[in-house]
């Protein structure tokens, strides 16, 4: 079941972040060191100012965060990957936003990009982001304008170029 985050979910969210965050960078050069969520002021602030959805089924299996029309986060506990958790959360967030959606993803994260492309997302920009002081090439992706009948450029969004 997908529902809105509640305060008591934070420890489970934090655990998923710890177990899953660095997987974004598994195809990048060099090792990345995890900054725990509570210590990563930028990501924690971005998460807490967002609407957070959790996939709950005998515990929290994954979560996603939305700010305006941007999907900021989608992480699934490693034990529950390939079971439709990420797909369901992603679809739920898109429906909740209800207009063309944007997101950013590490350029090398081909598995995530393949999921996003199934929902009509296309790469619209490439830029250099940073995680814990290390550069990462990232892609901005936008949902195809044909899904909602208007151009993605017509929607305003706010995002940080550092991920």
What does this structure look like?
The protein is α+β, with helices and mostly antiparallel strands. Strands 1-2-3-4-5-7-6 form a seven-stranded mixed sheet, sandwiched between helices. The two termini are 28 Å apart. It is globular, with a radius of gyration of 15 Å. The longest helix is centred in the middle third of the chain and has 13 residues, at 85-97. Helices cover 28% and strands 31% of the residues. Strand 2 (51-56) and strand 3 form a beta hairpin. It has a single domain (2-154), classed as Gcn5-related N-acetyltransferase (GNAT) (Aminopeptidase). It holds the Pfam family Acetyltransf_7. It comes from Vreelandella titanicae.
- Average pLDDT taken over every residue: 84
- Share of helix, binned: 25-40%
Whole-angstrom Rg: 15 Å
Strand content: 25-35%
* Strand order within the widest beta sheet: 1-2-3-4-5-7-6
State the helix count.
5
The CATH superfamily is known as: Gcn5-related N-acetyltransferase (GNAT)
Largest sheet: 7 strands, mixed
Task: Annotate the secondary structure layout.
Blueprint: E1 2-4, H1 10-20, H2 41-48, E2 51-56, E3 60-67, E4 70-76, H3 85-97, E5 102-106, H4 110-118, E6 121-131, E7 134-143, H5 145-148
Parallel strand pairs: 4-5
Antiparallel strand pairs: 1-2, 2-3, 3-4, 5-7, 6-7
Task: Offer a few descriptive terms.
163 residues, alpha+beta, seven-stranded mixed sheet, 28% helix, 31% strand, disordered C terminus
């Amino acid at each position: 079941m997908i529902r809105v985050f509640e305060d008591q979910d934070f420890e489970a969210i934090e655990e998923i972040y710890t177990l899953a965050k660095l997987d974004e960078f598994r195809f990048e050069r060099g090792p990345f060191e995890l900054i725990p969520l509570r210590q990563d002021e930028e990501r924690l602030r971005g998460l807490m100012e967002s609407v957070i959805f959790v996939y709950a089924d005998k515990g929290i299996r994954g979560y996603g965060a939305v700010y305006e029309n941007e999907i900021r986060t989608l992480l699934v506990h490693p034990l529950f990957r390939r079971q439709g958790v990420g797909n369901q959360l992603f679809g739920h967030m898109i429906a909740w936003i209800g207009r063309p959606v944007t997101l950013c993803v590490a350029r090398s994260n081909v598995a995530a990009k393949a999921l996003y492309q199934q929902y009509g997302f296309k790469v619209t920009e490439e830029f250099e982001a940073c995680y814990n002081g290390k550069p990462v090439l990232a892609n901005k992706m936008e949902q195809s304008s044909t899904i909602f009948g208007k151009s993605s450029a017509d929607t305003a969004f706010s995002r940080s170029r550092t991920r």
